[in-house]
Amino acid sequence: xxxxxxxxxxxxxxxxxxxxxxxxxxxxxxxxxxxxxxxxxxxxxxxxxxxxxxxxxxxxxxxxxxxxxxxxxxxxxxxxxxxxxxxxxxxxxxxxxxxxxxxxxxxxxxxxxxxxxxxxxxxxxxxxxxxxxxxxxxxxxxxxxxxxxxxxxxxxxxxxxxxxxxxxxxxxxxxxxxxxxxxxxxxxxxxxxxxxxxxxxxxxxxxxxxxxxxxxxxxxxxxxxxxxxxxxxxxxxxxxxxxxxxxxxxxxxxxxxxxxxxxxxxxxxxxxxxxxxxxxxxxxxxxxxxxxxxxxxxxxxxxxxxxxxxxxxxxxxxxxxxxxxxxxxxxxxxxxxxxxxxxxxxxxxxx
Length: 351
Hints:
Strand 6 and strand 7 form a beta hairpin. The radius of gyration is 21 Å and the shape is globular. It is of the alpha/beta class. It has helices at 143-150, 191-199, 238-249, 259-269, 313-322, 324-336, and strands at residues 32-36, 43-47, 60-64, 66-68, 72-77, 83-93, 96-102, 112-115, 120-127, 133-139, 176-179, 203-209, 232-236, 254-257, 283-287, 302-306, 347-350. The longest helix is centred in the C-terminal third of the chain and has 13 residues, at 324-336. It has 2 domains: 8-68 and 165-350, QueA-like, CATH 3.40.1780; 72-150, Thrombin, subunit H. Helix 5 crosses helix 6 (324-336). The strands form 3 sheets. A 9-stranded mixed β-sheet has the order 2-1-17-16-14-3-12-13-15. The protein has a 6-stranded antiparallel barrel with strand order 5-6-7-10-9-8. Strands 4-11 form a two-stranded parallel sheet. The protein is built from 6 helices and 17 strands.
């Protein structure tokens, strides 16, 4: 028998559909904030702009500065004119991308697509794991500019409303293009709020993890140990390492903004040199780190995160940090208090 906490169903909860946020709030930092004490399980109900009250001089906030690309392309098959949707997941090399093609079954190797009256063309050159397609694109000019004209923001499948402003699915500090999904915990920050936090003596460190679509993929196994995580590219530079290492050395708290920042830090920490001087070392690579209860955190002392899908790897990560029972109890309260859930929803601060 699988022990409690190792079964996917142990991370299920009841969520009324109307609590799934379909649109971002007009003002980013006016979303609600649930503050969860991970020792006691007690919760406090605040607004996101109150997050300042829980931070102190000497702390460090870690932000993921990845930028979402307009990765959703709507086009037609060249031979049949049938509608096709392509989601860009990861650039493999040059103009070859790993993609998710819908409908996929008819898109065999050699299938050709046309987008925007021929501004962009694509051809399936290989079919890889889980049915993803490698597509080679051809175009005139600069790929990013063509994509900006033709692509749409790759909103998660549970958001059915059309997004009026592309920038609302981007953090205000997004810098490096490469994500197929936004690091949504960061969507609540405004530039003004970040300035206020820095003025308090809280340091800001930036890391990069390009979010893949594995974020939204359901866990299809019964035992979480059987789940296969998709790899995502991360990078952490010397400046970020220095800020985080110094914070730890001086007794400050490292508070990660989002599960993606957390996975970056913990993946990089696995490569650390033990000793007094270094906790984190700069580096980059692909990580498949899967964090679930039983995991021993090496870097983070606090976490800002959104409310995640039932049975997802994200709720497992949060449960690893705050305790499964505390998290599920907090989610139950969030449902009762009519919090807004998922990407455009409210936030939780765990300390």
